[in-house]
Design brief:
The chain has about 80 residues and is of the alpha+beta class. The protein has one domain: Orthogonal Bundle (Arc Repressor Mutant, subunit A), CATH 1.10.10. It is about 35% helix and about 35% strand. The chain is built from two helices and six strands. A three-stranded antiparallel beta sheet has the order 2-1-6, with helices on one face. A three-stranded antiparallel beta sheet has the order 3-5-4. The longest helix has 13 residues.
């Protein structure tokens, strides 16, 4: 089962799709919304609502990055 643990100790579970998106963002550091497919944009929105991702506007671009307080990992 996959989950994200925050620095405060709170854990929230994530789907396989969300985990794959987090891997993609972690690899690149910052991902532009326009580089994501429509489904990935919806997943990013959900992860932003749950404070796992940070959405920031830079000029005319919206970018996503992983929150400093979120540590994603895999548990079995």
């Amino acid at each position: 089962m996959r989950f994200v643990e925050f620095n405060s100790g709170l854990k929230t579970y994530i789907s396989g799709e969300e985990y794959d998106l987090l891997e993609q963002i972690a690899e690149k550091g910052i991902v532009s919304k326009k580089d994501l497919k429509e489904r990935e944009q919806e997943l990013a929105k959900g992860l932003t609502i749950r404070s796992i991702l940070i959405r920031q506007k830079v000029k005319d671009d919206i970018q996503f990055k992983i929150s400093n307080s979120a540590n994603y990992t895999t548990a079995y």
